[in-house]
Amino acid sequence: MQGLKDRLKELLTDGTVARVVGWKKGDMPYNPEPAVFTSVDEMDDFVYDGFCGANLSKMMIEATKLEGKTAVCLKPCDTYSFNQLIREHRVNRDNAYIVAVGCRGKLDIEKIKKDAKGITEISGTELDGADEITVKTIYGDKTVNYSDVLLNRCHVCKGKDHMISDEVWGESKDTADQERFAEIEKIEAMSPEERFEFFKKELSKCIRCNACRNVCPACSCRKCIFDNTKFDAQQKANVVSFEERMFHIIRAFHVAGRCTDCGECSRVCPEGIPLHLFNRKFIKDIDKFYGEFQAGKDPEAQCPLTDFTFEDIEPGERG
Amino acid sequence: MSMNEEKTEFRPLIVAFCCNWCSYAGADLAGSSRLSYPADVKIIRVPCSGRVNPMFILRAFERGADGVIICGCHPGDCHYSTGNYYARRRMTLLFSMLDYMGVENGRTRVEWCSAAEGVKFSNTMNEFCEKIKSLGKSVRLGDLRCKD
Amino acid sequence: MTKQEIEKKVELIKEISGCDPYKCMKCGKCSGSCPSFNEMDVKPHQFASYIINGDIESLVGSQSLWKCLTCLACIERCPRNVQPGKLIDAARQLVERERGGDHLLADDIPELIDDDVPQQLLVSAYRRYRR
Amino acid sequence: MQRIGVFVCHCGTNIAATVDVKKVVELVRFEPGVVFADDYMYMCSEAGQEKIGEAIKEHGLTGLVICSCSPRMHEKTFRACAEKAGLNPYMVEIANIREQCSWIHKDREEATEKAVILARAAIAKVNLNAPLQEGESPVTKRALVIGGGIAGIQTALDIADAGYQVDIVEREPSIGGRMSQFDKTFPTLDCASCILTPKMVEVNQHPNITLYTYSEVEGVSGYVGNFDVQIRKKARSVDMAACTGCGECQAKCPLGKSGKIPSEFDRGLRGRSAIYMPFAQAVPAVPVIDRENCTYFKTGKCGICAKICPSKAVNYEQEDEIVTVKYGAIVVATGFDIINLDKYGEYAYNESPDVITSIELERLMNASGPTGGHLERMSDHKQPKDIVFIQCVGSRCDDERGKPYCSKVCCMYTAKHAMLIKDHWPDTNITVFYIDVRTPGKNFDEFYRRAVEQYHVNYVKGQVGKVIPQPDGSLMVQAVDMLDNKQIMKKTDMVVLAAAIEPNKGVRKIATMLTASIDNNDFLTEAHAKLRPVESPTAGIFLSGMAQGPKDIPETVSQAGAAAVKVVGLLAKDKLKTNPCTAKCDPMFCNGCSTCANVCPYGAITYEDQLVRGPGVNETRRVAVVNNALCQGCGACTTSCPSGAMDLQGFSNRQITTEVDSICR
Amino acid sequence: MYKIAIKDINTLFSKIAGEQELILPVKKAGQYNFGVYEEGADTEGILTNKTVKSAKDAFFPQFETLYNVKKTITPADELENGEEASGTKIRTKLEVQMEELKDKDFVVFGMRGCDVKAVDVLDKVFLSDPVDNYYKARRDHSIIVALACHEPEESCFCTVFGIDPSDPKADVATWVVGEDLYWKPMTEKGTKLTESVKDILSDADEGAIEEEKANIKAIMDKLPNTKLSLEGWGQGKTDEKFNSEVWGKIYNPCLGCGTCTFVCPTCQCYDIKDYTTKDGIQRYRCWDSCMYSDFTLMAGGQNRTSQLQRFRQRFMHKLVYFPDRYDGMFSCVGCGRCVDKCPQSLNIIKVIKAFEKAEKGGAV
Fold it and tell me: Across residues E26-33, what is the average pLDDT?
């Protein structure tokens, strides 16, 4: 981490970049926040460890509008999002300096907290840390395996390769140990009634805070259609079950073919709704109906929803 | 007594989005050929099936529709050459998602119907109405507030 | 035969053959191709109209059924996909089924095979007499 | 708030019989925005329209809802009526209570209820309508004709004669097309080149016509009135200005005599030189060098043509040239070809040189053809004594080998061939195997009957199953005579196949460039099969000749004239009115993500950096811009736009949503 | 002072729920949230886990209908004798149907010290003139059974606002001590409720809870954020804090989502909207968030147009404007929910610390 910090400071000092988009040390051992650093002094608070799960590519929409280059730390999965943003002309590639940082999977604090309240210190979460991490709490100390408390998305990791970079720092690890579509298939195998009950239960928790939307790098609209008074779609009435469904279906639909499956939506949901189940369903369908497609892999590839073939299957057919 | 029976019979509310060039004309042909279909079907004219935003479909369900059908030109015949191809992909994904969420498969449908297919239009509408009647009132996608 | 019986048989022929006799445009290419034409009392180009007109009795009673070599020439060349060969094969199966001779048991087969039987005939027989 | 007038039409009893018109009027009177509601026997009649006009003035109406027949029927009428009374025509909406209500429902109560709902939806929509102005775009007064066959030639001449500039792009070295290959034409039997050549010359000399031969359309952009077309002028290797057309070069070309290069014009029945004019009367009379076969281009040696050319016109250094020209209208006259017969093994076309297609027969009978007009078998150059004609080879075919349609001209040209042969060599025995003889047309059936009655051509109802080449060089034809119910085994000297015709292969590429639609058989689609038969659905694109469907020469010429009139009608305008129901981008919401441009079939969306100012926003950013003249209003972009920035005027998101709401109320 | 064995706690809930509505933490799809108690519900973990949203919904629901307007149209031929259709052949009528106010008592169980204090904050807003009838009705009928925090978490900092998590002030206070839940009525309402469930409670000694209280205090002392200083915040600080450059440095990661405002027990902003129904409109109100770009949006595009302004607004309101308006009372109760839930790990503690650091001259 120190090496990375030094390198970023160097980039700032030698004028290669005007600012750095990275993570800032939190006030607790596990809550670093995404931040923009503009000076070497500020960089003292820079941190990169297992809790730096946030996908910083979306911050580059604003950052690359500013004068001078912006350095950004992107993990392998974040680079897909960045590529997708390039494709949609949302970031200015020329104004970005991509430091591709290594990743051995990111940690889910909720999983750690499940049996560790009153955390005061966590050690061993750095990129080159051990397989075990130590959690100190006021109620006693605990150790857990790094791989046991990964974010769900890391279990279906897309791989350790960065899709775009200007320089690479650190080693990455492919943490995939689960079938990407296993969760989807499990739901598909349920009866329609069971599926309906499942989603009703999950979605009824939704508080319409819009965290999923606002964190999503594909939801990069300047103004969301749900905030667009012209569409007459704005609603904040969360208890009306239809609203959440409409919101989540349409949100997933709008990012279909553009979603890189970065998993930020599920990570940030305050109610723990597995929102990726919607996006991943579309990805699965697209793969099945129109051939395999990974958004953000190739910035030139045509999005499946703005494309067609004469032989496409008919709606309602299940392939 | 017969009055009561009539009232309890379920009359579905069906919204049909028809493209101006083929299906709307097909509906007109069904009309001028006096091919009847239930009055439960209400047609909204759109320039092209590619104009049908999934939000319109969900909106219809939100407001109490029991079934939504989208009619467009046959693939290859789109007045705008490609609109229905995009619509086909969009609707394929949307319908699959609705199915995935446990909404009854069959409340939504896409049918390609040309300006010459008045018979097909009428048959399709009759069939779709029957299907929706068999599924009953849409509950899973409806907005609770729309209920009386 | 009653009207219902005829209809049933027509349906059966259509089902077995998978062909639509109504597509015939009476071009005669089948008869122009048929090696057994002179042997037949009902000519290949007439098959479709016999079925359309419901004259099943004459068709199944005709010699043509047993004169067709199943050479597939008419099936190959029919421009309308009516494929008279398949129609006549279907009529033949209809007769065979009524006679109860519409299937072979695996145990019966060795007896039937002698060295002169061409492989193709066996395959053709299997196809025709399977349940 | 709008001031809406609702007018409910009885349509005699068409509507009133099943819909309680008076009740509809009463029930919609209280809808938001409605200030006036009335009914009338025939709303579209003069009196009905007057009533509407008066109401607009008297009640200060800002919007109209007409509950009547389909908008496809009378929307235009009522829009014009509104405009006459000073109301923007796009403030009119039609509730279709005839085709989609009264005509299909029997129960009066039910129909009335539905009529009210449809009216309400229309009212809700009008509440959100905004006046739209038709835009204007200028018209470039020059037309392009793609294809220089008889269809293209006639269209170009007619346009040029009307006083407009017109260019012809022809892929081959000469114009003339298929007709120049023919010997005689039915039903009058005049010589094809006698009637075509003068037209070709006229084209060449017409001050208003520019010829681009040996050229291809490379790219098309723009829209009706304003097309930009890139034309590739392939390197001819001969200076058009210097060449006198003396023909020395082709006479001296060493490859000329070898017969190694099959002549395309003669359908491969003889060879040609590497520097060549396809035929003697070629226009322009300037040869081209076929670089693929020319020894000079292959090995760098030879160069005889350049040496002997008296006017030093041969130029090996010439390169392809691309010119971009502006046009107001484009006519597609790409013509036809016959299908490939590889899949028809039973006719032995690839096996025997004496099985030929009808076009080959044309060349064989043509005085300027490979045999000098003497009919002979290609195998032994003997004159055939017995000829069999087979009709419908690949036409009316339901499988993938052929075409499902009737090729339309074969029956007539076969009768023509039979008669011509009988005329020259009366003792030739001719048999025609046919499925049906189709001769609708002026003097057509008489023509066919003459072949039977006067020339005793043997017409046999039945088809040939197989043609078997015999060791002695003859052909055995196995066929059926369906009327005699006899199979025929017939020995003959020559078999002529009436192969199905199909659109020229290049048409698919051209149609894609023009965004003109084609049908499953690759024929260009008309805007309307009956009412707009020479126009493509894409504005500014017109159809002429076989590219649109099988037809004979008189029909082609009349269609060519019709297309020309349509073109002239377009070019005569200084400005075009554009459809105002186009897409519109709200820069405040636009992400500049290019999704909409990806789905636009007309290339109507471009991106530019625009200064966007609004609450909290003051920056220059990439936003979508719609070209109103190009946009046809399909709305594909609006659905693909995730932020809802793109909207369609006349069918806006809010308008459709409100219709949905209103119907589902 | 009473007690009940925790293993029998469902009996207590059943009893309460039998007499009136009971709202308590409910586990649904892996998350705890306040909800209506249903017979036989799984109450495992509800005594120790923090809910995602606070109990605010019980008094000020995220969505509530205010009234309906109904339009009826009667054709003339259907009018009853004596009714008159004036002018036209149809009579239309508009009716306003007020939503009924809460008129039955209900119990909220399991609110912590912070949540209870948060209700005081809401009271200031909704019960001062003009009084909000919908809120008042709910408050009048609510009986709060609070629960001392058995296991405070590292995000907790209620003591900063003078709240004692070991001794919640409510109608009834309860403590988890060993295998038992101790129960102490504190108000008249509380005593009445206790009377109704007395037969399933047993008498207990007050001494037992003293140890639990001391425990809780000791834990609170050890927690990292309980020493936070509020110096420099409160009344009269508007100009100084509003114009500070610190905001510009720290707002950046804020997504502008509404998570913090929706999980907050004291955020009280709402929006009122109309929904078109079959035959009229329904006027409802729902929570709004000052983090949203369409919050208090006016025709001209105002009010706050940048995320910096919106971000500043929320914390200024909690720590400066509210104290200014209500005698120094902060509208944060240190429950720590926003600390737990912010997608970007941004929170009020970081804001306060950033200002502290900046005032000491450090880089922010």
Answer: 90
Task: Confirm whether B18 is domain-assigned.
Answer: yes
pLDDT confidence band for B147 (50 / 70 / 90): very low
Q: How many CB atoms lie within 10 A of CB E349?
A: 23
Q: Chain D residues with CB inside 8 Å of A88's CB? A: 591-595
Rg (CA), chain C: 15
Which residue in D517, D595, D609, D618 has the most chain A C-beta atoms within 10 A of its own C-beta, making it the best mutation to test that interface? Answer: D595
Domains D142-234+320-335+504-571 and D337-502 share a fold: yes
How high is the pLDDT of residue E92? 74
Q: What is the DSSP string of E61-79?
A: -SEEEEEEEEEEEEEGGGP
Q: Is the peptide bond prior to E130 cis by the omega test (within 30 degrees of 0)?
A: yes
**pLDDT tens sequence across D326-369:** 999 999 999 999 999 999 999 999 999 999 999 999 999 999 99
**Tokens at B121, concatenated:** 């239009």
Chain centroid offset of residue D105 CA: 40
Question: Which subunits sit against A, judged by 3+ Cβ pairs under 8 A?
Answer: B, D, E
In a domain, B2, yes or no: no
Q: Say how far apart CA D225 and CA D571 lie, in whole Å.
A: 8
**E254, E344 contact by CB (below 8 A):** yes
Q: For strand D605-614 and strand D617-626, is the pairing parallel, antiparallel, or unpaired?
A: antiparallel
Q: Hey, what CATH topology would domain D4-128 get?
A: Rossmann fold (3.40.50)
- Contact status of E277 with chain B (Cβ, < 8 Å): yes
- Is B92's CB within 8 Å of A192's CB? no
The 3-state DSSP class for residue D556 equals helix
Torsion of CA D270, D275, D279, D281, to 10 degrees: -160
Does pLDDT of A318 surpass 80?
no
Does a structural domain hold residue B145? no
Are residues A129 and A32 in contact, defined by beta-carbon separation less than 8 angstroms? no
Mean pLDDT of E106-135: 95
Fold of domain D337-502: FAD/NAD(P)-binding domain (3.50.50)
Contacts of D661 in chain E (CB under 8 A): 276
Contact D616 E306 (CB under 8 A): yes
pLDDT in tens, D618-659: 889 999 999 887 788 999 999 999 988 999 999 999 999 999
> Closest to E305 (Cβ–Cβ): which among D26, D30, D616?
D616
Residue given tokens 């199953």 in the structure block: D465
Domain count, chain B: 1
Q: Which residue does chain E place closest to A35, by CA atoms?
A: E253
The CATH class for the domain spanning D142-234+320-335+504-571 reads: alpha beta
Chain D residues 422-461 within an 8 A CB cutoff of chain C: 433, 435-436, 461
Helix C3-17 and helix C44-52: axis angle, to 10°? 130
Chains B and D, touching by 3 or more CB pairs within 8 angstroms: yes
Collect the ranges in chain D with pLDDT lower than 70: none
ipTM of the complex: 0.81
Order of strands across the sheet that contains D475-481: D464-469, D475-481, D486-492
D224's CB contacts (< 8 A; 6+ apart) are: D137, D328, D329, D539, D540, D570, D576, D629
Phi, psi of D490, rounded to the nearest 5 degrees: -130, 135
Q: CA-CA-CA-CA torsion for A235, A238, A240, A244, nearest 10 degrees?
A: 80
Q: Which of A54-63, A158-167, D467-476, E300-309 has the lowest mean pLDDT?
A: E300-309
**What's the CATH number of domain D583-649, 3.30.70.3270, 3.30.230.10, 3.40.50.970, 3.30.450.20?**
3.30.70.3270
**Cα-based angle D116, D117, D121 (whole degrees, multiple of 5):** 115
Q: Which of D92, D100, D223, D518 to mutate to test the interface with B (most CBs of B within 10 A)?
A: D100
